[in-house]
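#onboarding

Welcome to the new folks! Below is a worked example of what a typical request in this channel looks like: someone posts a single protein sequence, and someone else replies with the predicted structure as tokens. Don't worry about understanding the tokens yet, we'll cover that in week two.

Example request:
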Amino acid sequence: MHENDLMTKSDEWIEKEKVHDWRTFIEFLKVLSQEEAEANKLLAENPDENKYSSIHGWENDGISDYLEAISRCLEDGGWFNDSKQLDWKQLAEIFYMGKIYE
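Example response:
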């Protein structure tokens, strides 16, 4: 199995529903940040090997692509509805979708 096929920390946080308040949401954001930084480092170290595959599940390059993916995911409506109040878990899921949504 290739390293990219393994479950990442952010995958675990979402799957195990670890985000439930503002403190755990902050920790989740730190996990996402660390994963993205490591993915960028691996891509820079070996661009030919990683050129056409996501690293740690990251499908989007840079903050603009990431935020665009979040907005497209929300507009598509398949993941989240127009809820008047989001809980911390849902907010974490929205940021997570920016990582994987193409």
